[in-house]
Design goal:
about 180 residues, mainly alpha, 8 helices
Length: about 180
């Protein structure tokens, strides 16, 4: 077993983890498609069902890549959390409620698990990957919720992004002006 102070996996577990990450990278589009289908099929996701595909995808591809990069090249955890933060703000602006915001990320985790199962990933590698991915998705949920609930962003309401705001008006207290 390798124990460098940062790593507690055997060489075989490291190879299996690498294999699971490779399977997820190859299956990226399938994972994202499965996630979108889950969102569209879930009755609790009324807002997500109505969004056009680009708006629904939002920052999920970047979040997925950041999570895999974290496993593969030790990319900063803050990168994934940044995408989750933007995702939380964007979901509030698109009319999601807080439950929909969390459910979406939980379905994302399920789509990843489902893909590893569907491609017959080695149990050891899949478990090692999902053990870490679960923690990263949990942090993504928290980052997304923090952004969604941020009282300093209270002025970022739909009116600031639609015709309700006066064109060319200066930004007031954090509002985003519409050009």
């Amino acid at each position: 077993m390798t124990d460098t102070g940062h790593q507690f996996y055997t060489e075989r577990e490291i190879r299996d983890l690498g294999s699971a990450v490779d399977q997820l990278r190859v299956g990226r589009e399938a994972v994202l498609r499965d996630w979108m289908e889950r969102v569209r099929a879930n009755q609790a996701m009324a807002t997500g069902q109505a969004l056009a595909e680009p708006l629904l995808l939002d920052h999920m591809p970047q979040l997925f890549d950041a999570i895999l990069d974290r496993l593969e090249i030790n990319r900063s955890r803050e990168d994934a959390e940044q995408f989750a933060t933007v995702h939380g703000f964007a979901r509030r602006l698109t009319g999601y409620n807080i439950v929909e915001t969390v459910l979406e990320l939980l379905m994302f985790r399920r789509a990843i698990w489902s893909h590893l199962t569907a491609v017959g990933a080695r149990v050891e590698g899949a478990y090692a990957a999902m053990e870490q991915i679960d923690g990263m998705v949990d942090r993504a949920v928290l980052s997304s919720l923090n952004a969604y609930l941020d009282p300093n962003a209270a002025m970022l309401q739909r009116g600031a992004l639609t015709s309700e705001a006066e064109p060319g008006a200066p930004a007031v207290d954090g509002e985003i002006p519409v050009a």
